[in-house]
């Protein structure tokens, strides 16, 4: 081995731990920074840009430690001075368990869906204190919580506190009127003050004397828990210890008081949950309705918690200090992000409203179209989560089949339903909208997705690096796919006959200049000889070659040239971090969710295409613009969010691959599938695009490859890509609608 006394010899690093390597610190589940080992490890990570996906994982996955005397050469044995030559293409993954490691490995495989969220439950001890607070119940008493007068708490007072407290006062008055419900009246009176401002107060479940004598003896006692006299409402009702009065009081409460308050707390819970940052208020209301209001009044103790008081006995039911927490965007329910959970009821509303109110009595087509598009977002998330879960728990073959089958199901569902509707109505607009959506997805994933990730990631990281070799494979396939998709269009412009709808002589001279409108290349001249004999065979040939090229790309990156990514995974050897995989979704559960989400996606796509016709007809906006923006980018929002998360963790390689893979799948899978579909179900879809689509797509691909040549970028280059994308959107916005629409 090379030692410090031998500066002329090259040192070994990166692939394994050395005896003098610094000890890896305990992980913190949600930290943004990467875990670093030796100086060479840090340099290799900077060159290969492998920090991003690794920064928030539970432990390092290393190869087994080899004694110094028997160490084998590693990837950086050729390390010379400051540069680790082989580390340029090496990626070392870290994960809590084998399933999570398999998911991370799939992120770097070409053709597999890139997924940021965990598919397994993360160990509780590896979570940061911020995340632990999100999942904790509101029953933890802190020694010093600071001031309770915050903007979030004042917001609670304005939104919920005042009317909830007033409702408790009214219910208390009703309980006093019934006489038998008076014990619960005192409880509601105390709770009115609590829910007006619950911060810094505690509700506890305490044990009280059962006999009348013990009750009388307790009148002069002080609470051993918090100090001070025993709550006043215990004393007047000690005489009600008989079973009859107790049952009568409880019956009055459950019939008159509890339903009203439970309904109010349910409304507060749903509203606060949908606002996300107010989820602590939702927990507060849910716990109050399910625990506090169902306890006997004499067992509920409400006191203000002073700074020096720490209860030592008794069960704490509620203790809240803050009404809001901005970190709740990280909150997940069974592995599903809270925003996806909140949007799921929207799918049910869309389906019920769309199919029950088919005559548009309740809402119009614009509302139903908007709801259908919004419903596609959570369904896309569930499909992506299901694909990632199945792939992580299966072998390579099953994962590849699932990704190839369902990876583009969101877009294809909408495109096919639109083409079917256009064919039934004989309306060419639907085919043009599909072409616009295909082009919009291609341009958006090439320019907007990586550009936005560069800008947001560049705010945190001054310069970001990525694997230029892996990006080069996707770029080459993208060049090939764009050339193949637009080959029939270029062929038709060379050999087609130019036909114009209206021509005007601007010089009043028969030999002068003519101004023509609605010009296009006619391929049906001479009974369509040019189209059926030349263009259509070319379209079928391209549709066969493009999927074949996609399969070759898969074989190249996943079989013969895996060193481009060089993913290293082994078991976790961190002391105290031996965790078994607890998956959120099993394979069967993920498969059921995948099929159900696909079915709902088909229904939402059918509703979107059903109600898009009035928008296309009555809207003053170009159909081109509607296709390249709304229809193209809404289904890709979950992918955009994943890309941004990777970029924030300095893993721009995956952010770029997300956009490139979607663009490649559009050209090499989605378009050939649409062409194949038109063979069995004739539609108006032909692989002939407008000039605007051709120029925008080719310019975007050329610009992207120019930006990605050096393997590094910053927020300025990302700004250039985003600005070019918006310029193209402006062109589409002011462009006239396609002919025939």
Question: What is the fold's blueprint, element by element?
Answer:
Blueprint: H1 39-48, E1 91-92, H2 98-107, H3 129-135, H4 151-177, H5 182-196, E2 201-205, H6 212-217, H7 243-274, H8 279-290, E3 300-304, E4 315-320, E5 332-333, E6 336-337, H9 338-356, H10 365-392, H11 396-406, H12 409-425, H13 429-460, E7 464-465, H14 468-495, E8 497-499, E9 502-505, E10 514-517, E11 520-522, H15 525-560, E12 567-568, H16 587-610, H17 613-618, H18 623-633, H19 637-648, H20 652-680, H21 691-707, E13 712-713, H22 715-734
Parallel strand pairs: 1-12
Antiparallel strand pairs: 2-3, 2-4, 5-6, 7-13, 8-11, 9-10
Helix pairs in contact: 2-10, 4-5, 4-7, 7-8, 9-10, 9-16, 10-11, 10-16, 12-13, 12-16, 12-20, 13-18, 13-19, 13-20, 13-21, 13-22, 14-15, 14-20, 14-21, 15-20, 18-22, 19-20, 21-22
Notes on the protein architecture:
The protein has 741 residues and is mostly helical. The chain contains 22 helices and 13 strands. The protein has two domains: 134-206 and 246-327, no CATH class; 331-505 and 514-734, Up-down Bundle (A middle domain of Talin 1). The chain is 55% helix and 6% strand. It has a three-stranded antiparallel sheet, with helices on one face.
């Amino acid at each position: 081995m090379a030692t410090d006394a031998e500066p002329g010899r090259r040192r070994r690093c990166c692939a394994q731990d050395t005896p003098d390597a610094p000890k890896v610190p305990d992980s913190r589940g949600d930290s943004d920074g990467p875990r670093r080992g030796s100086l060479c490890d840090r340099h290799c990570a900077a060159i290969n840009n492998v920090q991003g996906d690794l920064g928030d994982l539970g432990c390092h996955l290393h190869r087994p430690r080899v004694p110094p005397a028997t160490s084998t050469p590693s990837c950086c044995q050729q390390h010379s001075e400051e540069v680790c030559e082989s580390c340029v293409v090496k990626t070392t993954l870290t994960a809590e368990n084998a399933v999570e490691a398999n998911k991370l490995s799939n992120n770097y495989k070409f053709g597999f869906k890139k997924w940021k969220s965990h598919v397994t439950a993360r160990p509780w001890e590896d979570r940061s204190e911020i995340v632990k607070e999100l999942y904790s119940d509101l029953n933890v008493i802190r020694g010093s919580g600071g001031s309770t007068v915050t903007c979030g708490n004042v917001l609670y007072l304005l939104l919920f506190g005042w009317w909830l407290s007033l409702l408790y006062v009214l219910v208390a008055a009703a309980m006093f009127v019934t006489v038998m419900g008076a014990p619960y009246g005192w409880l509601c009176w105390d709770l009115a003050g609590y829910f007006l401002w619950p911060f810094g107060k505690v509700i506890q479940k305490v044990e009280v004397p059962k006999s009348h004598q013990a009750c009388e003896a307790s009148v002069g006692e002080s609470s051993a828990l918090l100090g001070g006299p025993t709550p006043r409402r215990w004393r007047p009702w000690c005489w009600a210890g008989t079973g009859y009065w107790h049952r009568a009081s409880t019956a009055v409460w459950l019939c008159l008081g509890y339903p009203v308050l439970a309904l109010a707390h349910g409304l507060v819970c749903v509203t606060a949950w949908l606002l996300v940052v107010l989820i602590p208020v939702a927990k507060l209301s849910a716990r109050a309705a399910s625990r506090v209001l169902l306890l006997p009044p004499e067992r509920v103790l409400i006191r203000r918690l002073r700074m020096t008081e720490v209860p030592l006995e008794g069960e704490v039911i509620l203790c809240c200090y803050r009404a809001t927490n901005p970190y709740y965007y990280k909150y997940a329910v069974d592995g599903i992000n809270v925003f996806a959970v909140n949007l799921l009821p929207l799918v049910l509303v869309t389906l019920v409203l769309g199919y029950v109110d088919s005559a548009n009595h309740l809402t119009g087509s614009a509302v139903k179209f908007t709801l259908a598009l919004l419903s596609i977002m959570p369904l896309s998330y569930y499909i992506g989560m299901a694909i990632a879960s199945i792939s992580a728990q299966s072998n390579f073959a099953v994962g590849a089949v699932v990704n190839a089958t369902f990876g583009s199901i969101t877009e294809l569902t909408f495109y096919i339903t639109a083409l079917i509707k256009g064919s039934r109505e004989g309306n060419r607009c639907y085919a043009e909208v599909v072409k616009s959506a295909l082009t919009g997805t291609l341009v958006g994933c090439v320019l907007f997705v990586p550009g936005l990730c560069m800008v947001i990631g560049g705010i945190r990281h001054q310069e970001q690096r990525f694997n230029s070799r892996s990006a080069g494979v996707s770029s080459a396939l993208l060049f090939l796919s764009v050339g193949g998709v637009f080959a029939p269009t270029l062929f038709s412009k060379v050999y087609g006959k130019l036909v114009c709808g209206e021509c005007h002589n601007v010089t009043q001279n028969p030999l002068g200049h003519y101004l023509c409108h609605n010009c296009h290349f006619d391929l049906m001249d001479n009974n369509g000889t040019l189209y059926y004999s030349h263009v259509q065979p070319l379209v079928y040939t391209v549709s066969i070659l493009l999927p074949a090229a996609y399969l070759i790309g898969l074989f190249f990156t996943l079989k013969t040239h895996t060193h481009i990514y060089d993913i290293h995974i082994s078991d976790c050897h961190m002391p105290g971090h031996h965790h078994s995989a607890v998956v959120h979704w099993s394979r069967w559960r993920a498969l059921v969710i995948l099929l159900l989400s696909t079915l709902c996606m088909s229904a939402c796509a059918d509703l979107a295409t059903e109600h898009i016709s009035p928008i296309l007809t009555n809207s003053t906006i170009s159909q081109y613009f509607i296709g390249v923006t709304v229809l193209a980018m809404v289904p890709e929002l979950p992918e955009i969010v994943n890309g941004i998360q990777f970029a924030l963790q300095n893993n721009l390689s995956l952010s770029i691959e997300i956009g490139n893979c979607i663009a490649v799948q559009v050209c090499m899978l989605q378009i050939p599938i649409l062409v194949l579909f038109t063979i069995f179900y004739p539609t108006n879809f032909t692989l002939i695009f407008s000039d605007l689509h051709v120029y925008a797509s080719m310019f975007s691909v050329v610009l992207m490859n120019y930006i990605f040549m050096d393997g590094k970028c910053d927020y300025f280059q990302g700004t250039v890509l985003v600005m070019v994308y918006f310029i193209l959107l402006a062109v589409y916005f002011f462009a006239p609608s396609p002919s025939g629409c």
